[in-house]
């Protein structure tokens, strides 16, 4: 099943691949995908392998999803903004390279960008919040929102808490993607069933803004288990 | 052998982004402790240097008294603390000149240019005296945001507190910032501030002693470092019985 009004901007990352695998599994395919490839030799944040190994294009081809390669890897470049602006779909699932933020130019083209934040909103805003929530509350979270100018402050479509995984060493590339894709699937299912985007919490105010966690704390979050309590 | 790479090169010149850092298991945590303990030894040798800034000495004394409960738990650091409190430079009582030199926190306005050193002094003063808690958090969050984005602090910020101006290598500012972070973390136990503190101390430890000694009281740096180590060990104790064994 294609979601006719939904497209996707997918950077060539393990998270995008995870999302697409799940969307295929649950037959919630976007009508169109714009692929952002990394043209540099060096990997970009969120990439575990170089661009030939994730196989996103092959996956889309195998499932008959229309796609294009973006002319560059920058979501905010004029060329990429124009392609998205010219598309008929009104909602774009956004799965960019790690740390890529949408600037005002693209946020103001009249499209909605559906993003799944790796953290339970509004409590955990910002970066690497799941490591912080592992230390503080021994749990992970994911929340789907429509992006707005303020980081992680858009209206919340759906959010969920998850127990800490048994193996915490692969949070960045596996478990974080897993929990986010579960929330993405639930959000899209709800949309597919009702035909509208309902909000679990429209007023996404308050909470704390976190920044990239220091490696020492990241290690403590990974080393911890269910007994980790203050 | 694994190195603690975050202090290996001058982090003012070569800031670290800390993105997608690799997991190395318990070995990395041990290396962190060893690196910090080396830092403690390094700074302790400098702690007899005469330092005359009365406000800083006042901050050091008051902060030590606030933080001593945790510091006293570990003998090695307790001794250090005793050395510190016995030193002749300490200033526990506020004098009119100190009070006059600290600008009232309510007078800092986002519409004006903000002097970072003066702002930090005012924030620390308020934090120590448990005053204007909401305002302290508001300004601290702005400073944390600025530091996390650039890994630097400027001598001043233009109206709106976005664009920094002036120098970024005034180490006194980084030390005041680290002291405020540790005081705020001690009070709130909000891990966000501990994370930023670790980055600031990485930066300070990446610099050589000559640069540090002239800009901050070494006892004050020892205090920050000691409390950071103990805070990390306290979190580690929840995972590994006994935490790190200090020798």
Topology at a glance:
The complex is a heterodimer of chains A (230) and B (247).
Chain A: E1 2-11, H1 14-25, E2 29-36, H2 56-62, E3 66-69, H3 78-86, E4 91-95, H4 104-107, E5 112-117, E6 124-126, H5 129-137, E7 139-146, E8 156-163, H6 171-194, E9 208-210, H7 215-223
Parallel strand pairs in A: 1-2, 1-4, 2-3, 4-5, 6-9
Antiparallel strand pairs in A: 5-7, 7-8
Helix pairs in contact in A: 1-6, 5-7
Chain B: H1 26-44, H2 54-71, H3 75-86, H4 96-101, E1 114-115, H5 116-128, H6 133-150, E2 156-157, E3 164-165, H7 171-188, H8 191-205, H9 209-213, H10 218-237
Antiparallel strand pairs in B: 1-2, 2-3
Helix pairs in contact in B: 1-10, 2-3, 2-5, 2-7, 2-10, 3-10, 5-6, 5-7, 7-8, 7-10, 8-10
Please characterize this protein's 3D structure.
The complex is a heterodimer of chains A (230) and B (247). Chain A is α/β, with parallel strands linked by helices. Chain A has one domain: Formyl transferase, N-terminal domain (Rossmann fold), CATH 3.40.50. Chain A is 32% helix and 24% strand. Chain A is built from 7 helices and 9 strands, in the order E-H-E-H-E-H-E-H-E-E-H-E-E-H-E-H. In chain A, helix 4 (104-107) links the parallel strand 4 (91-95) and strand 5. In chain A, helix 1 runs parallel beside helix 6 and helix 5 packs across helix 7. Chain A is globular, with a radius of gyration of 17 Å. The relative contact order of chain A is 0.16. Chain B has 247 residues and is mostly helical. Chain B has one domain. In chain B, a hairpin with a 6-residue loop joins strand 2 (156-157) and strand 3. Chain B is globular. Chain B starts with 25 loop residues before the first helix and ends in a 10-residue tail after the last helix. In chain B, 37% of the residues are buried.
């Amino acid at each position: 099943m294609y979601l006719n009004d939904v497209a996707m901007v997918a950077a060539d990352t393990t998270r995008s691949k995870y999302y697409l695998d799940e969307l295929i599994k649950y037959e919630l395919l976007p009508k169109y995908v714009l692929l952002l490839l990394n043209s540099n030799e060096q990997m970009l944040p969120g990439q575990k392998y170089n661009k030939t190994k994730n196989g996103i294009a092959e996956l889309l081809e195998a499932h008959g999803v229309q796609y294009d390669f973006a002319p560059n890897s920058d979501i905010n470049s004029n060329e990429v903004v124009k392609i998205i602006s010219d598309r008929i779909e009104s909602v774009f699932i956004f799965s960019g390279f790690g740390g890529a933020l949408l600037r005002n130019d693209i946020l103001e083209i009249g499209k909605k960008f559906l993003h799944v934040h790796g953290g339970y909103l509004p409590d955990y805003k910002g970066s690497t919040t799941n490591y912080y929530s592992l230390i503080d509350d021994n749990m992970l979270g994911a929340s789907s929102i429509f992006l707005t100018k303020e980081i992680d402050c858009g209206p919340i479509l759906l959010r969920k808490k998850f127990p800490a995984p048994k193996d915490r060493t692969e949070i960045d590339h596996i478990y974080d993607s897993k929990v986010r894709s579960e929330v993405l699937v639930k959000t899209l299912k709800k949309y597919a069933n009702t035909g509208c985007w309902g909000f679990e919490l429209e007023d996404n105010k308050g909470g704390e803004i976190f920044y990239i966690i220091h490696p020492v704390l990241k290690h403590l979050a990974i080393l911890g288990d269910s007994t980790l309590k203050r | 052998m694994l190195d603690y790479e975050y202090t290996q090169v001058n982090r003012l010149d070569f800031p670290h982004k800390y993105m997608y850092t690799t997991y190395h298991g318990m070995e990395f945590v041990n290396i962190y402790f060893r690196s910090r303990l080396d830092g403690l030894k390094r700074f302790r040798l400098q702690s007899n240097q005469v330092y005359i800034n009365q406000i800083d000495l006042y901050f050091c004394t008051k902060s030590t008294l606030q933080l001593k409960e945790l510091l006293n738990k570990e003998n090695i650091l307790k001794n250090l603390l005793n050395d510190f409190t016995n030193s002749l430079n300490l200033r526990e009582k506020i004098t009119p000149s100190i009070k006059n030199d600290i600008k009232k926190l309510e007078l800092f306005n986002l519409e004006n240019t903000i002097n970072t050193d003066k702002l930090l002094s005012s924030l620390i003063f308020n934090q120590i005296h448990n005053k204007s808690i909401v305002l302290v958090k508001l300004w601290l969050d702005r400073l944390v945001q600025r530091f996390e984005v650039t890994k630097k602090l400027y001598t001043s910020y233009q109206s709106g507190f976005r664009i920094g101006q002036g120098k970024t290598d005034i180490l006194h500012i980084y030390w005041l910032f680290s002291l405020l972070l540790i005081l705020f973390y001690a009070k709130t136990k909000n891990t966000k501030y501990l994370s930023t503190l670790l980055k600031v101390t990485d930066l300070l430890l990446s610099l050589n002693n000559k640069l540090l000694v002239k800009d901050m009281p070494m006892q004050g740096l020892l205090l920050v470092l000691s409390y950071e180590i103990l805070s990390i060990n306290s979190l580690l104790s929840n995972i590994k019985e006994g935490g790190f064994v200090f020798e």
